[in-house]
Specification:
This protein is an alpha/beta fold. The chain has helices at about 5-20, 35-55, 65-80, and strands spanning about 30, 90-95, 100-105, 105-109. A four-stranded mixed sheet has the order 2-1-4-3.
């Protein structure tokens, strides 16, 4: 994340929390109306990247642009095959309690 300010920090923090809270990697994440479009979507995208990387072994391709691209593609394919890294931002929005909560396959943050 190359943006400046607090937004990338909060998106990265939320992504880390989503990875920890996710049990299947296929949950919907419910955000408040204010957070859904900005930090919410960024956090879910980053959490899916982290879950995909976690699901796939690192290929011994070395360093470099091509090797990094191949590792990223392999991680995505592996995560898809395992059915993980498919967190989604819910269309539903809610005014939420500060601690968030989980309910019926949804993570409410």
């Amino acid at each position: 994340m190359k943006e400046k300010g607090w937004r990338p920090f909060w998106a990265a923090l939320l992504a880390a929390l989503l990875v920890r809270a996710s049990s299947t990697g296929r949950e919907e994440v419910v955000f408040s109306t204010e957070d859904r479009e900005g930090a919410g979507k960024a956090a879910v995208a980053r959490a899916n990247e982290l879950l995909a990387k976690e699901a796939a072994p690192e290929l011994p391709l070395g360093d470099g642009v091509v090797a990094n691209l191949l590792n990223k593609v392999a991680a995505g394919v592996s995560a898809f095959a395992q059915g993980t890294a498919m967190l989604a931002v819910s269309e539903e929005t809610r005014r939420l309690h500060p601690e968030g909560w989980a309910h019926r396959g949804q993570l409410h943050l």
